[in-house]
Amino acid sequence: MVRKGKGKMADVLIPRLAIIGVGLIGGSLSLALKEAGAVGEVVGCGRGKPNLEKALELGVIDWYSRDPLNAVRDADVVFLATPVKTLATVTKELLPGCKSGAIITDGGSVKGAVAEMIEPLIPEGIHFVPGHPIAGTEKSGAEAAFPTLYRGKRCILTPTENTDPEALALVEKMWELAGSEVVKMSLEKHDRVLASISHLPHMVAYSLVNAVGSYDHYEENILEYSAGGFRDFTRIASSDPTMWRDIAETNRDGLLEMMEQFETYFAELKADIAEGNSEKLFEFFNRSKQLRDAIL
Amino acid sequence: MVRKGKGKMADVLIPRLAIIGVGLIGGSLSLALKEAGAVGEVVGCGRGKPNLEKALELGVIDWYSRDPLNAVRDADVVFLATPVKTLATVTKELLPGCKSGAIITDGGSVKGAVAEMIEPLIPEGIHFVPGHPIAGTEKSGAEAAFPTLYRGKRCILTPTENTDPEALALVEKMWELAGSEVVKMSLEKHDRVLASISHLPHMVAYSLVNAVGSYDHYEENILEYSAGGFRDFTRIASSDPTMWRDIAETNRDGLLEMMEQFETYFAELKADIAEGNSEKLFEFFNRSKQLRDAIL
User: Fold this and answer.
1) Same domain, yes or no: A109 and A17
2) In terms of C-beta density within 10 A (0-12 exposed, 13-18 middle, 19 or more buried), how is residue A38 classed?
3) Residues of A in contact with B212 (CB under 8 A)
4) A/B interface, count of CB pairs below 8 Å
5) Are A24 and A170 in the same domain?
6) With contacts defined as CB-CB under 8 Å, which chain B residues touch A224?
7) Helix, strand, or coil here: A152?
8) Does A197 contact B265 at a Cβ distance shorter than 8 Å?
9) Which of A275, B202, B223, B265 suits a disulfide with A207, CB 3.0-4.6 Å?
10) What stretch of H or E contains B208?
């Protein structure tokens, strides 16, 4: 039997795990793996001391260091859970501290640009496995972390021709023990899928709020008339602008492709309305309803 | 003192109210006015006998007739709560049964086309007041009706040059007693406001689901990957296709104008992404977040 947090190191999947960025994503992975008895020691690393202290107090991590080189020393797995645009810089900083055979993996929501930036940095004997757990809440910080965040959720791993099969197998096992259903696909497919189900909807919501909020024909803010429906529909337009700027920049190609796909359908609908084509309007709405109801 | 439902007729605002279409909208108005002691007798009228029986059983109405001519006889106010495209036909059917001085008002979610169709039908001595309570839930039928549906919600009345001031005042009083905040505006403004905060978001959601659900580059339904966020965002794409076909047809001009407004912003965002313009992207997302947070 392995005791949570400090069992016999040789028995657990990951004797030492370093979490770079101890927030909702990184902290929840730590808690899930501790609950599963899959980690020995968890080291936290981050910029904010109060957050790391909180993480320690809550048992999310076992100790912390604000120096990446120190945090990753002797770590078997290093999990990068910092914003997408910082991942390459963070990797450069911590690489000299990694032991031979260490596995670095990440949780960034864009994969093509991340792998392109990080893979060339990785030296012989260190492994990198790009990944993305599809989970989250609107909260952030170590306090928001909870052990069941990943349970029943998909985690997409995007191995490339450079990915070590054994490192990939270990990361896959890690996410399974955290409760996820692991799916493997290409970097390109991941970025198209995420562009469709997450990035495009955000662009649509941001545009909608800007369009309606800027309509000044009546010299008053017509958003004042909005009832619950509009507020619910546009909730995601309240998301963090910095995070979404980064996603829009790093998943540029996938996002532009899906935005064009959206524009095509929106233009078709507009033409049907302009023509007053009852039959096509009904078909358009009905097809959408069928597709939507199928994923309920 | 006036007893609910059958007080001294002369003391109440509306001694006899006829509700044409006893569903969520019509039924809730009846219950709200009964609770406020503002109606004497409420007569229901509709096509489905089981729904009318249910309404009777639940005390939503006092009696019913499936014949519009009979239902409106001696009614002081006739409230039309049937689908937008049926309003003119229903009005033609019931007009010969209306007494002199009767006030007809409606709850249709499009006002320009409705007033244009109905006003020419109204004879001397009968009054028509176009209106639209901004309230609703996803449920329908008499069983869904409840007395507080309109409490704290806006009700938009759209008087025209033909609207009788006394009839308008009575309808305004009726909605106030039902708990609404009454706002008066032109037919055109109503249709633009509703196009913005309700009709456009539905068109966007329907287009989004069609665009994503039709993306077949990977020969699998990528909607399967959608997590909670996408499902929440696209909930309104499950709305009734017939109802939305009717709205798209009857609010054609307002909707096309707002769809173009949306397209302009969406195209601006797409250009910013294509150019990788960090500063403009942040501004776009941030402005939207500010607008959205202001209506929370």
Assistant:
1) yes
2) buried
3) 196-197, 200, 258, 261
4) 275
5) yes
6) 295
7) coil
8) no
9) B265
10) helix B200-213
Token pair 């799916």: residue: A183
Share of chain A above pLDDT 70, in %: 96
Task: Indicate the number of domains in chain B.
Answer: 2
- On the question of pLDDT at B289 being above 90, the answer is yes
Across the interface, whether the CB atoms of A223 and B270 are under 8 A apart is answered no
CATH number of the domain that A181 lies in?
A: 3.40.50.720
pLDDT in tens, A130-167: 999 998 776 789 999 999 999 999 999 999 999 999 99
Do residues A152 and A204 share a domain?
no
Bridge partners for A183 per DSSP: A156
Using CA atoms, how far residue A193 sits from A101, A246, B13, in Å, is 32, 17, 58
- Computed over every residue of chain B, the mean pLDDT equals 93
Supply the ipTM of this predicted assembly. Answer: 0.87
CB B187 within 8 A of CB B115: yes
Distance CA B157, CA B183 (A): 6
CB contact under 8 A, A288 and B205: yes
Report yes or no on B4 lying in a domain: no
Contacts of A72 (CB under 8 A, 6+ apart): A18, A20, A43, A45, A78, A94, A97, A98, A102
Q: Which range marks the domain in which residue B237 is found?
A: 189-294
Mean pLDDT value across residues A51-57 = 98
- List pLDDT tens digits, range B158-204: 999 999 999 999 999 999 999 999 999 999 999 999 999 999 999 99
